[in-house]
Design brief:
By secondary structure, the protein is mainly alpha-helical. Helix content is 83%, strand content 0%. Helix 1 packs parallel to helix 3, helix 2 packs antiparallel against helix 3 and helix 2 packs parallel to helix 5. The longest helix is centred in the N-terminal third of the chain and has 27 residues. The mean pLDDT is 94.
């Protein structure tokens, strides 16, 4: 039961922060590119890389904290459904190049963020 509560509370906080961050970023940068979703997905990738590398090294992170931060917070903070919807919207607007840049940058930068999070975790 504690594990489910940890995941649920993490997801609750991650979802709220995702909304705040995405709206804030999109409000500052006008245009058709979905900067807010890209931001939360890259930051979430960094966090999960950091958390799971700490967990793999057994550096003071319990399973409940790993579930809270990984499955809960990062699961609520990042969003594949918004990513997919925004790409469909870009394609509907005939912004094929923008959609391809968004897809490519999300995948490549997201993976690099995971690696960076893991690298940063080595210094703790």
């Amino acid at each position: 039961m504690i594990k489910l509560l940890a995941i649920g509370f993490g997801g609750f906080l991650g979802s709220i922060l995702r909304y705040v961050v995405a709206k804030s970023v999109d409000g500052k940068i006008n245009g058709s590119f979905p900067w807010g979703t890209l931001t939360v997905n890259v930051v979430g990738s960094f966090i999960i890389g950091f958390v799971y590398m700490l967990a793999m090294r057994k550096v003071g992170i319990t399973e409940n904290w790993r579930l809270f931060l990984g499955a809960g917070f990062c699961g609520g903070f990042t969003t594949f459904s918004a990513f997919a919807w925004e790409n469909v919207s870009l394609l509907d607007q005939k912004l094929i190049g923008t959609s391809l840049i968004y897809i490519g940058s999300s995948i490549v930068i997201g993976m690099l963020a995971i690696v960076a999070g893991g690298w940063v975790s080595r210094f703790l």
